[in-house]
Design brief:
Layout (H helix, E strand, L loop, with lengths): L2 H14 L7 H6 L4 H23 L5 H26 L8 H6 L4
Helix pairs in contact: 1-3, 1-4, 3-4
Length: about 100
């Protein structure tokens, strides 16, 4: 499959990869599409970072502030990923991409 066709076919699924737990959809239904899979894996890492931030609110003193910072970074990373997926670009999100590349799915 030519690269442009693969990107066009996986674009919607790549966007879904950044919307909370919906990263599961491209991993199940477009597992052969490298573009959708690339973005879904980054979305999965972002989602788990978001879940981690929820537990930080139980840490005394700094936990509430750390939770807010991580939540803002999650929103920023997801928004950036969605924008790049819509444009049809492979994008790297600092630290998130490094983790996502090591996930074997």
């Amino acid at each position: 499959m030519p690269i442009d066709d693969e990107i066009n076919e996986g674009r919607l699924f790549a966007v879904l990869g950044y919307i909370g737990f919906l990263f599961i959809i491209p991993l199940l239904f477009k597992k052969d599409n490298l573009f959708a899979k690339y973005h879904a894996k980054q979305g999965m890492v972002l989602f788990f970072v978001f879940l981690f931030s929820i537990f930080l609110k139980f840490v005394p003193f700094l936990g509430v502030y750390l939770k807010d910072v991580i939540l803002y970074l999650y929103i920023l990373g997801s928004s950036w990923g969605i924008l790049q997926a819509i444009k049809g670009n492979y994008c790297r999100i600092i630290i998130i991409s490094d983790i996502a590349e090591n996930i074997k799915i």
